[in-house]
Amino acid sequence: MQADSRLDHIVVAASTLEAGLAWTEERLGVALPPAGGKHPLMGTHNRVMRLGEASFLEVIAPDPEAPDPGHARWFGLDNPPDSPRLAHWLVRVPGLVARRDALPLTCGPALAQQRGDLRWKITVPEDGHLPFGGVFPSFLDWECDEAAIPPRAMPGGAFTLTALELSHPRAAQAETLLAPILQDERVRWAVSDTPALTARLTGPSGEVVLG
């Protein structure tokens, strides 16, 4: 499976979008582009910025103007972190629905999502709790050709993702589960007492760390 699977994006979760943007922009030293929008099916909203050619950074929070979605929100956002943090990441798996049986069951079913003309499938655990505390990725499939995937059309690109460091008490198990799906030298596993994600980005002023 790993031949065409790719690291798609990293996720900063926050209790409000304003807080998430302030936290992220302080660390990047730049303002995020005014790109993003609302997710009616999940009751969330976001801002996004391209990282390199085919990945991106997402800042996401519950949308106070949205009605309760009536089910668990993605990325654990029914209970967002008290302070913004890098909370999750996603892997792009073309043909996700047909290949769902090859993914861990704890990732949840692949749900159809839409915002305007943009359509995609994404795994969302039914109870909203992310496997391995968010250190293990969710999976998605953009319903378009590789040349037209959304990150390529996003503003940004001055920053690139150079490393994603994933720490967890059961890091070896998580790494073993992911190995048949994704091989990416930027993804590094380590054993720790608590789950944690750290992204290292290279930008105009050098390295930036999001954690």
The biggest sheet, with number of strands, parallel, antiparallel or mixed sense and barrel status, is:
12 strands, mixed
The total of beta strands comes to 12
Q: What's the shape?
A: globular
Strand content: 35-45%
Report the uncertain regions: none
Q: If you average the pLDDT, what whole number results? A: 93
Measure the end-to-end span: 29 Å
What is the C-alpha radius of gyration, as a whole number of Å? 16 Å
Order of helices and strands: EHEEEEEEEHEHEEE
Helix coverage percent: 10-25%
Structural class: mainly beta
In oligomeric terms, what are we looking at?
A: single chain
Number of helices: 3
How is this fold's topology laid out?
Layout: E1 6-13, H1 17-28, E2 36-39, E3 44-51, E4 55-62, E5 85-92, E6 110-115, E7 118-123, E8 138-142, H2 150-153, E9 156-168, H3 171-178, E10 187-191, E11 196-203, E12 206-210
Parallel strand pairs: 1-4, 3-9, 5-8, 9-10
Antiparallel strand pairs: 1-5, 2-3, 3-4, 6-7, 7-8, 9-11, 11-12
Can you tell me about this structure?
The protein has helices spanning 17-28, 150-153, 171-178; strands spanning 6-13, 36-39, 44-51, 55-62, 85-92, 110-115, 118-123, 138-142, 156-168, 187-191, 196-203, 206-210. The chain is mainly beta. β6 (110-115) and β7 form a beta hairpin. The two termini are 29 Å apart. 38% of the residues are buried.
